[in-house]
Design a protein that fits this description.
Elements lengths: L13 E3 L17 E5 L5 E9 L9 E8 L6 H14 L3 H4 L7 H21 L7 E9 L5 E11 L6 E10 L5 E2 L1 H5 L2 H15 L8 H4 L13 E3 L3 E5 L14 E5 H4 L11
Parallel strand pairs: 1-2, 4-5
Antiparallel strand pairs: 2-3, 3-4, 5-6, 6-7, 7-8, 9-10, 10-11
Length: 272
């Protein structure tokens, strides 16, 4: 299970999961720096990396490491994943209605838009520190029943400090339905009470009464975030900056092992 794909140059490699050998795939010019992985369902998972320079001097370029499905081979779930990625990348509302499929150029355009915003600020204030952005979109296909879209970013766009962001979207591979916590656990309120002990222990908190004192804010008691995914060990919950605590407290997380989830899950996870 990968969260952040390393931002490195991707060598053209083609794998076939069905026969264990190489398979030649014809790519378009804008896919020349991508990897095509043939999944068991005959879907092509396109992986790549784009960089856009920013600022003057020896500054780190803006980076976007990505994965998306080739539209020639799609289940409803794969099609939904691509639609979500397209929505995330749409910075131009007019173009959004024209562009129907994900492609490498959209990732580059997203970075270029960010750079253009920086240059506008730089014109107004020559002392503006150089912005940066490192983004990744990955698709976990460990389970045949669900697809897990993982979006992560770190960046700086002026101000006192930068930011980190992490967002997950789980999709039923067969129907294309976006799945929420209730789809996996049924009664969310009961599950929150069950999950609390894992949150407390893994964040070094003695009791629920200490949450407010330590700086956490939960309006109506502890709640699991909808920002979760399944690792190879269990169910992982990730709270973003400012979601339940001040910036200085970082990104609180906790994990519930599969062995403790056996009687809690109402959705069947079919591992490949």
């Amino acid at each position: 299970m990968k969260l952040l794909i390393p931002c490195v140059f991707v060598v053209l490699t083609f794998f076939s999961c069905q026969n264990g050998g190489e398979k030649k795939v014809d790519l378009t010019d804008d896919q020349k720096d991508t990897t095509v992985i043939i999944l068991p369902e005959k879907a092509q998972l396109i992986a790549g990396n784009v960089e856009v320079p920013i600022g003057e001097g020896d500054h780190e370029p803006l980076r976007f490491t990505f994965e998306y499905f080739d539209t020639s081979y799609q289940t409803k779930g794969q099609k939904k994943i691509n639609a979500i990625i397209l929505e995330l990348l749409s910075t131009d509302k007019k173009k959004k209605s024209i562009v129907k499929e994900v492609n490498e150029e959209l990732f580059r355009e997203h970075l270029t838009y960010f750079r253009n915003e920086y240059e506008k600020y730089k014109e107004e204030d020559e002392n503006e520190m150089t912005w940066y952005l490192d983004m990744s979109i990955s698709i976990d296909t460990s389970y045949s029943s669900i697809l897990q879209l993982i979006f992560a970013e770190t960046g700086f766009a002026g101000g006192a400090h930068g930011w980190e962001g992490f967002k997950t979207t789980l999709v039923d591979n067969k129907s294309g339905k976006v799945l929420k916590l209730k789809d996996f656990v049924g009664n969310v309120d009961q599950f929150d009470r069950f999950a609390l002990k894992y949150f407390l222990k893994q964040n070094d908190i003695e009791s629920e009464d200490q949450l407010e004192e330590l700086g956490y804010w939960f309006e109506d008691g502890f709640k699991c975030t909808e920002n979760f995914y399944f690792s190879d060990k269990g169910m992982v919950f990730v709270y973003n900056q400012y979601e339940i605590a001040p910036y200085v407290m970082g990104i609180p997380t906790f994990e519930i092992p599969f062995k403790d989830l056996q009687k809690k899950l109402v959705y069947e996870l079919d591992e490949k």
